[in-house]
Amino acid sequence: MIKKKFNLILIIFIFSFIFLGLFLGLKKESYYVPKNFNTKKVINLKSKEFFSRKEIKLYDILKNDNLTIINIWASWCLPCREEHKYILALSKESNINLVGLNYKDKFSNAKKFIKKYGDPYDIILADTDGTNSIELGAYGVPETFVIENKKKKILKKYIGPLNKISFNEIKKIIKDENK
Amino acid sequence: MISNYIGFYALSFGLIISVLIIIKSIFFLKKNNEDKSKNFFSLLSSQFTLIIISFFSLIYSFVNSDFSNNTVFNHSHTTKPLFYKISGTWGNHEGSLLLWLLVLTFFILIFFLKSRNLKLSYRVFTIFFQQIIIFGFILFIIFTSNPFGILYPIPEQGLGLNPILQDPLLAIHPPILYIGYVGTSIIFSSSLAALVTRSMNQVWAKHIKKWIFASWIFLTLGIMLGSIWAYYELGWGGFWFWDPVENVSLMPWFCLTALIHTISVLEKRNMLQSWTFMLSIMTFSLSMSGTFLVRSGILNSIHTFANDPSRGLFILVFLFVLILLSIFIFFTYYENIKIRKIQFLFISKETSILLNNWFLMYFLSVVLIGTVYPIFLEAFTNEKISVGEPFYQKLITPFMVPFLILMALAPNIKWIKNKIEKLNIKILTLFIINLFLSFYIVKLTNTKYLFATLLITSAFFLFLISLRDVLNTNSLMSQRISHFAFSIFILSILFNSIFTKEFNSNMSVGDEMKFFNGTIKFLKINIYEENNYQNIKGTFKFKNSRNNNIYFEPEIRIYNQPNISTSEADIKTNLFTDNILNFNLINDKEYFSVRYQYKPLMFWVWISTFFIAFGGALTFIRKK
What we know:
Chain A has about 180 residues and is α/β, with parallel strands linked by helices. Chain A has helices at about 1-25, 60, 80-90, 105-115, 130-135, 165-175, and strands at about 45-50, 55, 65-75, 95-105, 125, 145-150, 155-160. Helices cover about 40% and strands about 20% of the residues of chain A. In chain B, the strands form two sheets. In chain B, strands 2, 3, 4, 5, 6 and 7 form a six-stranded antiparallel beta sheet that branches. A four-stranded antiparallel beta sheet of chain B has the order 1-10-9-8, with helices on one face.
């Protein structure tokens, strides 16, 4: 009888341990970001301004400030809504250029989105056919690029929606650049 | 649009019926009313019908490219061929879970119909446990992975299916594998029920054996299809990468293989009940953990569908509830198993089957540790390691030698007691001749493989002995065919790894390269626009030492939805060798990295795996 109870406790203990291990494993971030990505120079994208539909080049935008953050979004993209609060918070940072790249979207839907959730962007580019995002090297929506303006270098890229960790990381990069 | 609602409500009603069945079975078991089994049938069949409706409404949405459905939007596109629109239904997380559920409800219905000759209380208990699983699954689908999520405004176009999943093999690989996985759930529920109702006996063994064999056959075929896909589509020239997701399907396979052997001991000798019970629980838990590891995004792999921690948490909790439930039942009803004091004799079929189980459990734990340890290490210490082929090779190969020898000799040992005959001179000489032959092969090919000589010896030994058995006897044909096929399988893998050759180079159009057994000339490239991708087709001429020309036409496909490029290897398969050539873009469609591989006996790896499963299938035919 004692032996039986001992066995039971032992087994339950072992399984709790396995449970704990797997549970902790779940909490790890598993987004994969290519390692030698940050050596890349960003190309001079040709795009259109969202409202006026005038042609605009990326290097013209890079002339102002030290840092540019490009956020790829779309009104139909659910995770974009989720990360929008972080983008709004980033818009309060000074000395950065916050660029929204509107990916394969209807003009009216995208406008509704900004109206409803707020417009954090300094400038919005319209990527109606999705080619701009491909040229940037994006994998999907949403995705966020941090670019150093002088060297036109991509410092960091975030695949998927921003979260608290990546948000703080971006804030730190901004702080370091403005020293 | 309407199909979204139909699908969702059908699913929800399925949940309600699940609750009804659970309540009804509890009442039933309290009163023990023997003649109300008809109600169960109508409930089970209506549940199955509802899930079918739900599943077909998802297929309907996929076929009509109804992008108001979230799942369709995320995984389909109007330019996709109809076949992939349909297979796209289960090529994603939400749809594949719906398929799981469909098979679950279908199996319990079949179980109910096929178990008429058994105790009603046992059948109802099985239904009870199975419904707990079904209930959990429907909850999981509705709350964390609803396939019928509605998008508004309705997007004009979908995001497309990952192109490497656009393959006919991948359209059938998941369903086949799932049938195997879900089959283990029946084994799980019925062994819990058998323990509670004291019916874990020879009759039960005979009945559950069919389910074990069926799951095993489908699992074997499912794993094989996945690995054929990896070989042809990924074009890396390998068929097993010890990828965690592959391992996860291999673990329940080890368990089921052990169970196939153990259940016949229970059937013939009425012993090893608690071990059978534990194996049944383990098999299902491992299948479920497979689902957990693949679906939760805890692993980085092609198979990881979505990274949503709440899904992972749900499966994890659900899995541990089921495990704890079965542990609890085992400890409470342990006395139901009548322990017969039987002496195990050293040389008997029982002992050899037990030995086989120990080996299989050893292989299982190696794979388990290799798969789970990195996750644990990262969880507790933040350190990242990856466990690869050398680990498995070093731990598994030494034990393959006695395993193969045992596999050759054991099938001819009798039940209960086997007379130790005089040392069988014939078999011994056969073994020694083998040993010399293998030594010669290893020496000649300069193999630096762990235990190469012994491994080849034992594989050949198994091959010859099982060949003799296949030719000689009529009884137990299924077992003999499986063992014989297994020996071919091992031999093919061995010779494949010994004789494989590979050549890598960077080339542009017009280049010619010489290497060990021939020359490769890069003739031209053509670029075509296909329906949903751009196709870059290269033409290569390969001339080997015997002046035979082989033309290769590998492709690079640049898909537009989503923008991904894949490399399609050109694989020339014939009976004894495979020649593989693939190329990849380096820059600007001028320079390419070219890889040529020579792989012998690949065809035999597939055909032998098929016959391993076929041997299992024979058990069904033989009885009729």
